[in-house]
Backbone:
């Protein structure tokens, strides 16, 4: 039996890389998340505020696709 591996769509990306990808600072990303309630919610592996936040790549791609579709409408 082969171990199961997550597909690329299920992969996670750390918040620092999300900021780089969308050209925002961390505070800019926080403002975007508060302003745009459709932005994907992060996943944290820990209960502290300092726990690293990760995002599901598929959710980010879907959000971006929706923004592009909205722009082109």
Residues:
């Amino acid at each position: 039996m082969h171990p199961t591996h997550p597909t690329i769509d299920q992969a996670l990306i750390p918040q620092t890389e999300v900021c780089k990808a969308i050209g925002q600072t961390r505070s800019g990303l926080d403002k975007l998340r508060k302003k745009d309630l459709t932005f994907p919610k992060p996943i944290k592996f820990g209960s502290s505020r300092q726990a690293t936040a990760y995002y599901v790549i598929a959710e980010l791609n879907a959000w971006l696709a929706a923004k592009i579709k909205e722009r082109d409408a």
Q: What stands out?
A: The chain has one domain: 11-72. The helical segments are 15-22, 26-35, 57-72. The mean pLDDT is 90.
